[in-house]
Amino acid sequence: MYCSADCKPGAIREQVALNENYCEKTMSSRGPQVEQSRMKLLQGDITKLAVDAIVTAANESLCGGGGVDGAVHRAAGPGLFEECRSIGICPEGEARITHGYLLPAGRIIHTVGPVWDGGGYDERETLAKCYRESLRLAAENGVETIAFPFIATGSYAFPKDEACEIAVSTVSEWIAGHSLPKTISFCCFDDEDYALYQARLAATS
């Protein structure tokens, strides 16, 4: 299947990735083709992705809230809430893994990003740790395909340009030393976020 004309123009290929609501967007023929690497860029609703695991930007209680985490809990159903309640607190920078329940994804990795407070409280390192810990859990559980949202950039107000840099650089470092996950996707909901990742991924090639 291929995406309809409402996908971004100018791509050399616009293929529906993983299910009909997701477009795998590649660079133009003048730039790098991101689909050839283990990092991929998607735009859409992360709760619809049929990957081995999705990551959600959780709060410490793991019991849902606003933004992407609220959407994940609503889509996954009440079983997720019960499992998260049994886990307890997850501190900032750490991650926990659960079943996917009603989601197409088989697993959900919950990670707690830092609340931005000017950058003087190790927020950058904590955010990088969110990615490393999520990837560590994924690898330990045999996850081959995983998708990340834009962690900590919503109500936690982490500056998006810095968050994007940390996400791509941390994942790149992981890929250099690990075979799993085989494919790591960044799933952006809006055009602004997609453009940030597109530019940053182009710079890595």
Structure description:
A hairpin with a 6-residue loop joins strand 1 and strand 2 (23-25). The protein contains five helices and eight strands, in the order E-E-E-E-H-H-E-E-H-E-H-E-H. It has one domain: Leucine Aminopeptidase, subunit E, domain 1. The protein is 34% helix and 19% strand. The longest helix is centred in the middle third of the chain and has 18 residues, at 123-140. The model is unreliable at 1-36 (pLDDT under 50). The protein has helices at 67-76, 78-87, 123-140, 160-177, 191-204; strands at 14-16, 23-25, 39-43, 53-58, 95-99, 107-112, 145-148, 183-188. With 205 residues, the chain is of the alpha/beta class. It has an eight-stranded mixed beta sheet with strand order 1-2-3-8-7-4-6-5, with helices on both faces.
